[in-house]
Automatic annotation (TrEMBL):
Subcellular location, principal: cytoplasm
Repeat is among the record's keywords: yes
GO molecular function, one term: metal ion binding
Source organism of the structure: Myotis myotis (Greater mouse-eared bat)
Any GO BP: T cell homeostasis
Transmembrane segments: none
Annotated ranges, domain PP2A regulatory subunit B'' EF-hand: 158-242
An annotated GO cellular component: cytoplasm
Protein name: Serine/threonine-protein phosphatase 2A regulatory subunit B'' subunit gamma
Alphabetically ordered keywords of this record: Calcium, Cytoplasm, Metal-binding, Nucleus, Repeat
């Protein structure tokens, strides 16, 4: 007999005492007393409802206030520890290779076409040998999830391995990182001066650097291992230092002065104040000497809205141009230079971009430089594997990618390269004059 039946019978029993009719409140009290009595008896002898409620786990913890410094630091450190713990749980390449070897060794015939299969018995054997990090994947629930129509009750080894790859490498999506940085802002003394109205732009600016460099394929997620392995998190947490020097702040992308500089430039370029940048507006970026041909390619290849660029797309553009030595930045620019989408630059594509430099030189009253000379210099600098083609990897390996791209897209950059020896001599003369004084 269950407790509901007990209550029903007890409450249905007529009362033969002097007060035959009970009030509605008395009936409710009696029902609660009976419920408490039987619940306590059947669930371990709890004496009253207060004790029952005490056993409910706490599921909400308020966020620490801005002036609760210790709690803020504790929250910040716990986040860092969480990321590190998650990283330790992830499978590295060697562990993934070992898992694949074990799965292949324990495949269950017959194959379906070229697809290897595995039954539940062998699945469990692999789970025992694969190591503690893999234990979470070798469950009946996972097996059943991947079990479809195989008449032998097996699952595809490749499908299971791909499942592990997706679940076992640990990623943060853009929204995860946005929330993390938004919650981190109040804990960083160097960001105390930021207006709350600027928080969303700051978060966008900060998150963009992570995704520009760590998500080159634009999948919308980054491996936690990659976040921990790079220096960006250290740069961000450097803002905890209340005495961080002005020089350090200026070189730190995540600092308030840096974020305000980038956003301020965006606002200054936005002459019609519609929150977006047209090609004409973007042409005034930096020294305003980028070629129209290059800017055309930016608006052809990058995400735009009715032919105009938003702040997030602008951040990618800035990160590429300010970090031209970095592989991710070179990849961004290389895609723009590869007008035929062949995966390499040839004489035609180099000439296509350099003609625009020559035209700007004429406009500014300078004698155009021969393309043939420039082309030879570029190939000498890069030394590509194929003497007629320059690949992205060739550019990266040469350590001259920043120079080559600058020559092709920016008149001021080309002029600086052409006059590098004169500029060095001038700097030496100035240094000598200062020493004399």
């Amino acid at each position: 007999m269950d407790w509901k039946e007990v209550l029903r019978r007890r409450l249905a029993t007529p009362n033969n005492g002097p007060n035959k009719k009970k009030s509605e409140q008395e009936l409710k009290d009696e029902e609660m007393d009976l419920f408490t009595k039987y619940y306590s008896k059947w669930k371990g002898g709890r004496k009253n409802t207060n004790e029952f409620y005490k056993t409910i786990p706490r599921f909400y913890y308020r966020l620490p206030a801005e002036d609760e410094v210790l709690l803020q630091k504790l929250r910040e450190e716990s986040r860092a520890v969480f990321l590190q713990r998650k990283s330790r749980e992830l499978l590295d390449n060697e562990e993934l290779q070992n898992l694949w070897f074990l799965l292949d060794k324990h495949q269950t015939p017959p194959m379906i076409g070229e697809e290897a299969m595995i039954n539940y018995e062998n699945f469990l054997k692999v789970g025992e040998k694969a190591g503690p990090k893999c234990k979470q994947f070798f469950t009946a629930k996972v097996f059943a999830k991947l079990l479809h129509t195989d008449s032998y009750g097996r699952i595809s080894i490749m499908q299971f391995f791909n499942y592990v790859m997706r679940k076992g490498q640990g990623y943060l999506r853009e929204s995860d990182l946005e929330n993390y940085i938004l919650e981190l802002i109040p804990t960083l003394p160097q960001l105390d001066g930021l207006e709350k109205s600027f928080y969303s732009f700051y978060v966008c600016t900060a998150v963009r650097k992570f995704f520009f460099f760590l998500d080159p394929l634009r999948t919308g997620k980054i491996k936690i291992q990659d976040i921990l392995a790079c220096s960006f998190l250290d740069d961000l947490l450097e803002l905890r230092d209340e005495e961080l020097s002005k020089e350090s702040q200026e070189t730190n992308w995540f600092s308030a002065p840096s974020a305000l500089r980038v956003y301020g430039q965006y606002l200054n370029l936005d002459k019609d104040h519609n929150g977006m940048l047209s090609k004409e507006e973007l042409s005034r970026y930096g020294t305003a000497t980028m070629t129209n041909v290059f800017l055309d390619r930016v608006f052809q290849e990058c995400l735009t809205y009715d032919g105009e660029m938003d702040y997030k797309t602008y951040l990618d553009f800035v990160l590429a141009l300010e970090n031209r030595k970095e592989p991710a930045a070179l990849q961004y620019i290389f895609k723009l230079l590869d007008i035929e989408n062949k995966g390499y630059l040839n004489v035609f594509s180099l000439n296509y971009f350099f003609r625009a430099i020559q035209e700007l030189m004429k406009i500014h009253g300078q004698d155009p430089v021969s393309f043939q000379d420039v082309k030879d210099e570029i190939f000498d600098m890069v030394k590509p594997k194929d003497p007629l083609k320059i690949s992205l990897q060739d550019l990266i390996n040469s350590n001259q990618g920043d120079t080559v791209t600058t020559i092709l897209i920016d008149l001021n950059g080309f002029w600086t390269y052409e006059n590098r020896e004169a500029l060095v001599a001038n700097d030496n003369e100035n240094s000598a004059d200062l020493d004399d004084t």
